[in-house]
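Wed. Picked up where I left off yesterday with D-glycerate dehydrogenase. The coffee machine is broken again, so keeping this brief.
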Amino acid sequence: KEAILVAKPIVYVTRRLPNEIISELTEKYQVKMWEEEEMPVPRDVLKKEIAEADAVLSMLTDTFDEELLNMASRLKVIANLAVGFDNIDVKACEARGITVTNTPDVLTDTTADLTFGLLLATARRIPESVDVIRKDEWKTWSPYMMAGSDVHHKTIGIVGMGSIGEAVAKRATGFDMNILYHNRNRKPEAEEKLGARYVSIDELLAQSDFVVSMTPLTEETKGMFDARAFDRMRKSAFFINASRGGVMNEADLYQAIKEEKIQGAGLDVFENEPIKSDHPLVQLDRVVALPHIGSATVETRNRMAMLCVENLKRVLDGMEPLTPVKV
Ligand code: DGY
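Structure written out below (tokens, as returned):
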């Protein structure tokens, strides 16, 4: 009898991932990988690879639009290593029978921890204070040196009450905070469990000491934190963004802080990433800027990567993925 050689399906991984993750794939699939860790795969390389791939394990830095998807003749699944999927035209994927998956739940607590840490760091001026010692500027203890703002017993306003928003609210209960939220739909369980109060976006902006964006980037949320929104906030308030840079207008935010319409901001995400140190926003003392590290712990990144692996295996085996994205 003649042996029939069946080519293994091709999985393209758009960034270098640890061997333990990749070895989960190599038995059944031919794995190709963009070997860089700190540089996204260039568009022209991705175009070439996607033409041959049956599955892609992608990063939020890769844009999957019509142009790219038109080159994907055999692609069945894009497993995105993020809960957010604004980098992918999901409708265009649906039209082509390509399944999109994301990584919800496994990163919820980790991202909420970082968000709350960013809020604390911003209010209590922790990075500025670290710099005082690093730069040898500490002359003596003094009563108002690096005096920040209290967090406990203040009002937090969470915009986007998905599971990460709820996990941030849970942390806020430990600080005896008054919790407001705004969301597409009300969350009665969160109201009951966390004592969170649903309010309109304008009321949230007007009442909160900390306005925290946990909302995904969509057509509706794009640029929602703009001059009008910052004008409605308290002069003493802080804006915290740990969701997506595209929900805020950075030029308006800069202006609002500069003109002391609000007190400061804690930002883990930016309109254009990576933001550079000479960007006017990052130069402001009362801005704490982080390089998009919301879910960046080794444990969580491993869980996210394994969930991507499981999702793409399932789709290639003709099964429902664990966490499909639906629009
Ligand atoms: C996500 O999962 O969408 C985060 O932004 C990545 O940490």
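Quick read: The pocket of (2R)-2,3-dihydroxypropanoic acid is lined by residues 60, 82-84, 107, 294-295 (CB under 6 Å).
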